[in-house]
Amino acid sequence: MRVNDALLPSLAADFGVTLGQAAQVVSYFAIAYGLAQLGFGPAGDRYGKYRVIAWACVGSALASLLCMLAPGFETLRLARLLAGIAAAAVIPLSMAWIGDVVSYEQRQPVLARFLIGQILGLVVGVALGGFAADHLSWRLPYALLAGLFLAVALALFSMNRRLPARALLRRPSQGSALQGMLNDFSHVLALPWARVVLLVVFIEGMFLYGAFVFVASYLHQRFGLSLSAAGAVLMLFGAGGFSFAVASGSLSRRLGEVRLVRWGGALMSLSFALLALAPAWWWALPLCLLLGLGFYMMHNTLQLNATQMAPERRGPAVSAFASSFFLGQSAGVSAAAWLVGQLGMAPLMLGCALGLLITAMVFAKLRSARRPAG
To answer: Which positions ≥6 away from 201 have C-beta within 8 Å?
Structure first.
């Protein structure tokens, strides 16, 4: 998902396109990723979540291979579209599976530990993209991704055969697959709290990634930092998230869901605002760390609510959550690509800082109102 962030200037130079056009490899992936969730959620409930994820990893390996071999920018965009479709099953069905087997009271720390895998992927993806852009070829990361996806697929097929019955929950098929999918999402969208969670995560993805995807390019253009160094700085975003994952049990008990969201939104807002005003590149070191910490404080709480907003349709519900998040990301990146050309990167970050703060405070207030008395 993040391997292209630091590759954008390299792709722009190699294919003779603008930075905003190069960002389409990010937005195309996100659009496909978001929309494909709608099919994978019901499929996971019907055919088994582990099995569906394993086949999706096979598809992701093939799509990564196509990205590596792309002869032109149009082909690369199409390959990234296919990659978004194939990868869409992994995170939401994993979250839904955790919801199936872990009680709500114990679930937030488990989801936080699950985030460690995502964080490591984020960190390595950004760093690998920057290193490849500076020293190797933008094609190398895709070759590595193809091999990793294939290895994970084989491991999942093996694990699926050894899981106990309680971890292989399926919902019997009723009618056609299309009708079942429509019934599932109609049920989820009929729930008022589900609509709130889906809207908030859409807005969160829009404001966060609308600015974040350009941070490496911002450090490169404004301060002359190499792309590999800028990618290394962005690794601190993952370090902030890792810090939350390690301390999630204690933080969840001490702060609770409402204050986690409030503090998370405040940290994200402060980080983007100070990045926009930073007089030197090294300001990005602590700010990226705080940005990652704030994001995972808020997003993990949203994930927790997503796993319980429609327990009897957990696969479709969590898939709708992930779809909303990545459609928001796509909308944010697409709008930001235009705004960067009109306003510049600093005003973009200031606007996203304000949007994240308002979003967090509104959701915290709504979540507080739902808390049972006492």
So the answer is: 299, 302, 306, 321, 324, 325, 328
